[in-house]
């Protein structure tokens, strides 16, 4: 069975959100150590450590309700997700393909905003400078 294309995104979380995410996703968080964005190793030696099985968490140091942690999350691409995408389309006025790049737009928004004379044929996502096909023939690719 083939999976949908996945993308890694960075999410900012509070300590309680990080712990909740960790306990809901032990396989994704196991053995990882997180430091708050305002981390200062001398004045504020804080970290949040998840056990090797992801089922326990240890908070070292003093934390505040303002501490923010950055977590990299891998999730499947959806048609509602805003991404850096490249659309390949053909116009009824011309008989050749053209490309348009969007910095932060969803597949649904691209398709909805197209004029009637344009037909989208492919949509790619830009993953660190590499274009990956994510939409073709009216649906997401696997």
Outline of this structure?
The protein is mainly beta and 142 residues long. The protein contains 3 helices and 10 strands; from the N terminus they run βααββββββαβββ. The protein has 2 domains: 7-76, no CATH class; 83-140, no CATH class.
Structure annotation, total helices: 3
Structural class: mainly beta
Main sheet: strands, sense, barrel: 5 strands, antiparallel
- N/C terminus separation: 9 Å
The coarse silhouette is elongated
Radius of gyration: 21 Å
Number of strands: 10
Strand content: 35-45%
- Unreliable stretches (pLDDT < 50, length at least 5) are none
Number of domains: 2
> What is the helix/strand order?
EHHEEEEEEHEEE
Chain-averaged pLDDT: 88
Widest β-sheet, arrangement of strands = 7-6-8-9-10
The percent range for helix content is 10-25%
Write a structural description.
With 142 residues, this protein is mainly β. The chain folds into two domains: 7-76, no CATH class; 83-140, no CATH class. The protein contains three helices and ten strands. It has helices at 15-24, 26-29, 107-113, and strands spanning 6-13, 33-34, 47-50, 57-60, 69-76, 83-91, 97-105, 118-127, 130-136, 139-140. The strands form three sheets. Strands 7-6-8-9-10 form a five-stranded antiparallel sheet. Strands 2-3-4 form a three-stranded antiparallel sheet, covered by helices on one side. A hairpin with a 6-residue loop joins β3 and β4 (57-60). The longest helix is centred in the first third of the chain and has 10 residues, at 15-24.
